[in-house]
Structures are given as C-alpha cells and as structure tokens.
Request: fold
Amino acid sequence: MNIDHRRFNRVDLLEIAGRVDAATAVQLKQRIDALFDEGRYRIVLGCSKLEYISSPGLRVLIEARKRAREWKITDLEGGDIRIAGLPPRIKEVFDLTGFTSLFELYNDTIEAVGSF
Amino acid sequence: MHVLTVPADLDSLDAVGKYVVEAASQAGLDRKAAYRLRLAVDEIMTNIINYGHTEVGLTGDVIVRAAIEADTLTIILEDRARPFDPRERPEPEDLDRPLEERNIGGLGVYLALKGVDHFNYEYVDQMNRNIFVMYRPLQA
Reply:
C-alpha cells in the first residue's frame, strides 16, 4: 500500500494505492490519526488506485468516520471521511456490508474535495 | 496448480492473494468473482493467522491448494492450529443499524462466506481445512 497526501485549505486528500489488508491497515489508520492529531477532520480518501480492501481496512474507515463526524463547527458543518473514485469491485463489497449508505461517495477527488 | 506453503504470518497475505488471483485467472473467473474469492480467502487466512497462531503464541505454516475442475475452482487452506469452524461465528448484527451500535467483529467472516459460491470446513488428521468453491463460467 502507498498513500499520497495533498493538503488543501479546508480538506486533506489521501490517495490510497495498492492493498489495504490486515498487514497494511494499521498504516492507513496511522495516517488518518495523524491528521486528526493536527485538528484536520475533513478528509477525502481517493480510492481510484485502491486494488483491494479487506475487513481490517473497512474497520479503519468506520472508526475514522465516527471520529471525524464527532468534530463539529456548527450543526451543519464539521468533519467527515468522504470517498472518491471507488472501483466497481470494491463498491460491491461496500454494498454487501452496508457501507454504501454510511459514506458519501463521489466519482472523483475534485468533486469530493469540493463537497466540503 | 502447484501447492503454496507459507508461514502463518500477516506478511504471507500478499503471496496468498497473488496465488488466488492466478488460480482465478487460470480458471477463467471474471474480475468480480476473482475479487470476491480473493477477499474470502484473505479474510479466513487473516483469522487463521491472528486467532489460530499469533494470539496463542503458535507458529506454523498454512498450505494453500488450488484445484481447477471442469466446472469449479476450489481453493483449500490447511493449518494445524486448534479446530475452528468459521461458520460457527454469528453473522454481524443488522447492517442497517447505526455504526456506533454495531458489533462489526464478524465482518470478515461474513464477507468470506457471502462472497464465494460454496464454503465448507472440515477438521481431519488434526488439520483445519477451509474450502472455497467458485463456479467457472461457461467457456465459449
């Protein structure tokens, strides 16, 4: 797994490439937690180069989503984990697990970054 | 296909994944089916490593076999940890419930069992055998 980080004014974009499995999920968690530690809670995960994700990775996403959403500026504005460019094979896993309704999904990273 | 023997260690997940993808390719599975099979094997392999070995301080190998028959592709994982039948794990609670109330501990097994056409488990000769079967598409 490889993660590229780009910082924008309001939003941080993590582009994930490769595999997120039981061996690598902890690295993803550390990258997201590091953003939280800096007070950055508006995060887009770019997934167009994500080849594979198994349940330890899904768990990282769920926990991150919860923490991000706990951060609020107003009732209408706050933190979130939003997902861009999910490949169809992985979208199928999201559908199977009910994740599709839990996350805001976007076709591409520009749309997702702009959504905040 | 050749038999793959790897240590029961998370570093082996990649090699097992590649082996399954190669088997799926040889069997002519489409990409979605190949992905589901890989995910299923990976989830069960992760449990074998974490719960069968690391948590109880056991070291050992996992043997991975692939058999391509006329209409099916079968992948078998064999290990010598204590007997554990993944089917005895309860399914995750209602997936529509709010996340904060949900126990997602069984998510991996759920994905494994839902993703393949047939799953079987047996304990023979002091060995766990997790068996994954996918139907092969009709060849043109």
